[in-house]
């Protein structure tokens, strides 16, 4: 005998307690449902999916609003109303559209709308992610269920606290994050297959077992190496596994390895695809399989990046130096006189003795444009008369957000306006190197 | 620049005025007619707007209405002036059309791949991820607008794949505004976007009306346009508020099941910077492809070939101007459109200020040349720097010809006609030879060809010194050393290009082919002595041994092949040396090559700050009066009481520290201005003293207005120095 609970638990393993709880609170015909119910838990813990599945399984009519889709609070109210409306009037034409613009208006309108008998559930998913929804609105929304007897408001949030709804102890169900075993178990529900299955070929029991085994192995191995970074939750883990799977099974398809050679397969994959940047791999790439295309294309066309104009590069270096050096020591680093140099050496020695935080870690500090121009002139191999071209390059660097204006002086190139460099050391270093400028030697330690 | 002074009459010269001093006397006002003043002002502000109006009206404006001045000390005929004007428009229109065609092609590859990405993007490929195209646009901001418009029209009008909404950072103030813009672009509904939370009425009765930022409106639109995609293109991703971008991506992703969104992101700097600015959770929602836009060097090369090298372009750039223009490109702008602007300016100033440019208008017909050239023109031609060497060469062979050139205008005119043909031939040959050389370089040493673009070689070639450069000698040397297969490809490719060598080269190619097949029959390939031994790690000695070995192994085919290589390379070298002669050798090169560099450097890179600083620190340079030490020598400059007050104050300002006490400044100022009298007790009632004080405050206000100082907030009666000289 398979009751609704059994089938739900089969579809969603590792969630018995939550499913039981939902069923107990909502699925009992003889007990009225609570006015408000809070489901909470971090990303991809099955909150949305499971609550919908339970409601459907118990055939409770519900209106579902995904608040992530809503742009404003009013938008939430509108959607809540129209979805309840659609649920009750079943597609009947309404004369005028109703657009509640506050929680109270929504409560009032819903009261008119909802018949006094029969259970109804309003699910507000990710209501805490809506920026315009304030705590008072939240508690107002939670009270709608008290005003309307047969309505239950289910709120799905990331973290729950007693102060959230301003109600003492609303019934709530926690969806904890999955651990490794649970993740692997859940993902193993739908393994991908190794070989393409044609219509004619039969998908044999044996093949299925192989698929299952390898898939589970792959999931747990990926969790092991990337669980901390790219595959922090179920969805992310699934993304990574999906991404890696084709390359993992390629040797099997090519008949190089057997299905059970998992360690070898995975090692090979690790060397090829992940290199040593596990954390940055999947999560940092929008483009698929960048490795393959790169190896093909490089010998033919040297894929050189787009270049900045010559002086823009120096301007950027100057901006970086102005942001990370202290103005006090400018003479030491940028003076072209011999005296400046000797001072600089002495200064370095002195600095080493005192313990200080590395400037690089403190972030860029604002500087005056005039100071940047002075550094610019001093690091140039041969000086240049400032012209409108220099000004427009500064403006361009600003619109590229390589440097940024921080003060609100009326004119952008006013000498006293404050600016800041907006890119990291690595980028500027490369830019500097392309004009044979060594950033490091001019940088304060 | 002295050479040019002959060509540039006073009225048209852009050269002689260091600055323009405005003296509004009533006399001056009454003297200059409105027409003349317009001419003068157009010379100073050749902005594109003016050009546009000019070119639009050129047909309707009658004689002299176009603003071109009468040159040759007013001896130039009216029809000659008109002819210059007309020729300028004719020639420039032609160049412009051809460059526009090239530029239209430039983005074609990118557009092609973006368009196929958009048409292919579907749920099957990207699943739950938002299809995203990263378009690496490069840092030339001016070109981005054009590119995105092209993308829009390609997807929307040509491919008819759906609608495109282009967003710029100006729209990124908040999510609501961004969504409103997208909705308006996609649905083309324009009512209901005035107020914050306006309602958009549904077009058809079926759909409800909605808030004006509700993406459901697009969903409604999609239901009436099945298969249409909705492309959201962010033109300047870097400047777009990252917080709004994150929200936007999350919304687009949310609606993806209902609306087939595609995101295009224009990235001007680098992908890494882009990734750094977005949280991982957002990046995880995206999946897609990367598209590269053609690099500046490549498009510049194409435009240069079409606009300058092509034989259809009659007027060429001289080496000095070319250097100015391309240096500015490299150092400052890196944008093709700014090159086109510079080129147009070269055309404009040539025809505007050079009376002899009229010759360019009638190079095809001797008759019209004869009629257009007046006696004054002939006199000007005789004054050309290239005329003297031209006549001198004649003296040796045909003294009577030389005399005729000096005395008879008729003879001179026919000489001009032949010389203009000669100039054209020179440029055609030059273009051919450059083309040939570039091809050779790209086969022989592609690395080098990539490094130095053609337009950077151009000026050296014109000076005639290119053949002595290492780049040239290297290319010739390596040509000898390449393998026989490569040599064969080289010969066949080069023989296909139009040049006087092509016949010779194709014969040589046939010969090599023949030798190669003979040798192949024996199971080996052709080698020459020049080919280096394969191994990289040969010492000189072992290398030599090997060479000897090789020599002994050489067959008769090899020897013949080697001879062929030697002679071909020899031929090529002579050919290049012949064609890459200095352009100054030819008579009339002043007309066919525009080479005044200072108009360009002045007009395109104005230097307001150095000018102001110079005017204030050395006022004599501008005023030219004796009292202010207007001498040319350096020590002539210096502070002096006779200088304008703001100049005096500025020079004192230069000598002061970052924080200036106003009283100190005043005492110094008083010292300078009063000279010896300053030693006397300051007397408050003294009229002179009072006036001086007023002048002091006025000068101070001027410095403040110019942005040199501001009042200190920390210390009363002190000024903060804001600008240092020479930055
Ligand atoms: N116990 C489970 N069994 C099977 N699949 C599950 C389980 N838990 C989650 N999933 C799957 O994981 C995915 C993410 O779940 P869901 O979207 O419901 O999470 P969520 O908690 O609502 O996340 P978020 O807080 O981001 O909205 C869904 O595809 C769902 O089917
Ligand atoms: Mg959810």
Automatic annotation (TrEMBL), chain A:
<keyword id="KW-0547">Nucleotide-binding</keyword>
<keyword id="KW-0067">ATP-binding</keyword>
<feature type="domain" description="Origin recognition complex subunit 5 C-terminal">
    <location>
        <begin position="308"/>
        <end position="443"/>
    </location>
</feature>
<protein>
    <submittedName>
        <fullName>Uncharacterized protein</fullName>
    </submittedName>
</protein>
<dbReference type="Pfam" id="PF13191">
    <property type="entry name" value="AAA_16"/>
</dbReference>
<dbReference type="InterPro" id="IPR041664">
    <property type="entry name" value="AAA_16"/>
</dbReference>
<dbReference type="InterPro" id="IPR048866">
    <property type="entry name" value="ORC5_lid"/>
</dbReference>
<dbReference type="InterPro" id="IPR020796">
    <property type="entry name" value="ORC5"/>
</dbReference>
<keyword id="KW-0539">Nucleus</keyword>
<comment type="similarity">
    <text>Belongs to the ORC5 family.</text>
</comment>
<dbReference type="GO" id="GO:0005664">
    <property type="term" value="C:nuclear origin of replication recognition complex"/>
</dbReference>
<dbReference type="GO" id="GO:0006270">
    <property type="term" value="P:DNA replication initiation"/>
</dbReference>
<dbReference type="GO" id="GO:0003688">
    <property type="term" value="F:DNA replication origin binding"/>
</dbReference>
<keyword id="KW-0235">DNA replication</keyword>
<dbReference type="InterPro" id="IPR027417">
    <property type="entry name" value="P-loop_NTPase"/>
</dbReference>
<dbReference type="Pfam" id="PF14630">
    <property type="entry name" value="ORC5_C"/>
</dbReference>
<feature type="domain" description="ORC5 lid">
    <location>
        <begin position="215"/>
        <end position="269"/>
    </location>
</feature>
<dbReference type="InterPro" id="IPR047088">
    <property type="entry name" value="ORC5_C"/>
</dbReference>
<dbReference type="Pfam" id="PF21639">
    <property type="entry name" value="ORC5_lid"/>
</dbReference>
<feature type="domain" description="Orc1-like AAA ATPase">
    <location>
        <begin position="11"/>
        <end position="154"/>
    </location>
</feature>
UniProtKB/TrEMBL annotation, chain B:
<feature type="domain" description="Origin recognition complex subunit 3 winged helix C-terminal">
    <location>
        <begin position="609"/>
        <end position="724"/>
    </location>
</feature>
<keyword id="KW-0539">Nucleus</keyword>
<dbReference type="GO" id="GO:0005656">
    <property type="term" value="C:nuclear pre-replicative complex"/>
</dbReference>
<feature type="domain" description="Origin recognition complex subunit 3 N-terminal">
    <location>
        <begin position="53"/>
        <end position="359"/>
    </location>
</feature>
<dbReference type="GO" id="GO:0006270">
    <property type="term" value="P:DNA replication initiation"/>
</dbReference>
<dbReference type="GO" id="GO:0005664">
    <property type="term" value="C:nuclear origin of replication recognition complex"/>
</dbReference>
<dbReference type="InterPro" id="IPR020795">
    <property type="entry name" value="ORC3"/>
</dbReference>
<comment type="similarity">
    <text>Belongs to the ORC3 family.</text>
</comment>
<feature type="region of interest" description="Disordered">
    <location>
        <begin position="28"/>
        <end position="58"/>
    </location>
</feature>
<dbReference type="GO" id="GO:0003688">
    <property type="term" value="F:DNA replication origin binding"/>
</dbReference>
<feature type="domain" description="Origin recognition complex subunit 3 insertion">
    <location>
        <begin position="372"/>
        <end position="595"/>
    </location>
</feature>
<dbReference type="GO" id="GO:0031261">
    <property type="term" value="C:DNA replication preinitiation complex"/>
</dbReference>
<keyword id="KW-0235">DNA replication</keyword>
<comment type="function">
    <text>Component of the origin recognition complex (ORC) that binds origins of replication. DNA-binding is ATP-dependent. The specific DNA sequences that define origins of replication have not been identified yet. ORC is required to assemble the pre-replication complex necessary to initiate DNA replication. Binds histone H3 and H4 trimethylation marks H3K9me3, H3K27me3 and H4K20me3.</text>
</comment>
<dbReference type="InterPro" id="IPR045667">
    <property type="entry name" value="ORC3_N"/>
</dbReference>
<keyword id="KW-0597">Phosphoprotein</keyword>
<dbReference type="InterPro" id="IPR040855">
    <property type="entry name" value="ORC_WH_C"/>
</dbReference>
<comment type="subunit">
    <text>Component of ORC, a complex composed of at least 6 subunits: ORC1, ORC2, ORC3, ORC4, ORC5 and ORC6. ORC is regulated in a cell-cycle dependent manner. It is sequentially assembled at the exit from anaphase of mitosis and disassembled as cells enter S phase.</text>
</comment>
<keyword id="KW-0238">DNA-binding</keyword>
<dbReference type="Pfam" id="PF07034">
    <property type="entry name" value="ORC3_N"/>
</dbReference>
<dbReference type="InterPro" id="IPR045663">
    <property type="entry name" value="ORC3_ins"/>
</dbReference>
<dbReference type="Pfam" id="PF18137">
    <property type="entry name" value="WHD_ORC"/>
</dbReference>
